[in-house]
């Protein structure tokens, strides 16, 4: 099969389209003929050599999510999967014509979302739901702050929060991203460099949940903005990892800081996160409250160009690669 | 009634024994003729002016826990409480002959523990159970690290952890405290200045739960020592509040940092924490797995001397004041 391979650690020049062996599904896995994959920051971090693939996953083929058609099943997997149009998450290997993943990490593409577009659902929405709801405890009426709201996960957080009746403020670095994010139901959008006064004014009691992709740079302000019993869920570290924290504030607020990643989880844990999202989301796909947000659709051959665009923060929502 | 009053913010010299008005129970409250109270760090912090009493609580009379006999009940409280020997937690005001507290913050003194000794149970054990189990998620087999293991809460954490079959390492600054803590079932005790190598050696996968009273000084080492999905519960800040944290480690481990205090909670929340502890503890009082650890019993008149001893970290376990 054709696949994108990282030939070494480095810049976009290490990205090559190669002929590699088509994987065969192991017990508990199914194989998907990939229709499309979508980009994640982790793809670039892996390319730079800082985020090796977890055990049992293709080492050199990047990619954490996909849409496609099930074309083979491993031992113990229901043959009823064959031919179904699905999307899902993987530990790696989705920049390819075929990928094998655990059955629990796959779900039927929602009605009303096309097969290519469905490639932009799984990683963003499962991560967002897990961070906002499972870890963050958001519910109707919660005051939610989302940083980097123009990212795929960021705008998924906004959609999920709005669908459950939470209030949401988002930060983004450019005016055009803030304007686009507002159309998804944000109460307010503000520059990432100066969000504290506005959030304080709008959320008089503080933020019940903060979903953060920035890390160290925003840590002190985030802790200051948390409500009593608020939760700061850190999903990314675009602004560095070594931060200062006022533990006194954390105590007085009885607040929580939690770090999370999806990729390194066991299949069983991923499956739980996928099921939790799918169960909650089912009615919301039908009303249109949820929809994948796609910046552009490119091709597998354009993987290098696509990663350069993401690294430059050009995109609003997901960059999809048609396979 | 007689009560200890803080006449101003300051050193032990602001502590005075005064005649004050005996409180009357409000709706939902009962009044306890106090047999004894016990010291907490918060008493000293309040004396220094840095920890004002929460609303609805005596401003100038310190004290967060007590044992005694119920002698009056407010509206809506079962008269069956009258005459019962109880212990419990309060938002303040227990350095006194009488204290009024919400019914949910009181429980019957355990069989086999004397009335005076019971003054050393509530704050230490409820805080310990809440931090270790409710927030920390400790269970049979968990690897637990407890700092300042000679404190009242510290040694309560050890007892609870051992009673549920967890492994425990404790830190303390003096050899004699470490030796005494070992007798409560610690797997190892180590100096607070150099705990990292020993914990790493004993807990190969890291600590599942860390209960910390030190804060900033230990923060970096604590985060390094956490296991995957480990939880660091910060209960005190003896070592400062402004700390450095490696968010990258927190993400990779999917770890959690949470601050907690008992005193500022609503009566309903305190009641939940009290009930959770009492329900879990009932069988363990009978077997002797739990017992209040008392450093010394003094009198209300000796409150200043007692606080000086606690501030000098002289005590192992609780300092009790007979009223």
Task: Give a structural overview.
Two copies of one chain form a homodimer. By secondary structure, chain A is of the alpha/beta class. Chain A has two domains: 2-121 and 263-322, Quinone Oxidoreductase, Chain A, domain 1 (Alpha-Beta Complex), CATH 3.90.180; 127-259, NAD(P)-binding Rossmann-like Domain (Rossmann fold), CATH 3.40.50.720. Chain A has helices spanning 41-47, 122-135, 152-163, 175-182, 195-202, 216-225, 247-253, 267-287, 303-311, and strands at 2-6, 15-19, 29-38, 65-73, 85-89, 98-102, 106-108, 143-146, 167-172, 188-191, 207-212, 226-234, 242-246, 256-259, 294-299, 318-322. In chain A, strand 1 and strand 2 form a beta hairpin. The radius of gyration of chain A is 19 Å and the shape is globular. The relative contact order of chain A is 0.16. The mean pLDDT of chain A is 96. Strand 14 of chain A pairs antiparallel with strand 14 (256-259) of chain B.
What can be said about this structure in brief?
Two copies of one chain form a homodimer. Chain A is an alpha/beta fold and 323 residues long.
Radius of gyration of chain A: 19 Å
Instruction: Give the count of structural domains of chain A.
Output: 2
CATH topology-level name of the largest domain in chain A = Quinone Oxidoreductase, Chain A, domain 1
Largest sheet of chain A: 7 strands, mixed
Order of helices and strands of chain A: EEEHEEEEHEHEHEHEHEEHEHEHE
Question: At the first level of CATH, what is the class of the largest domain in chain A?
Answer: Alpha Beta
Proportion of strand residues of chain A: 25-35%
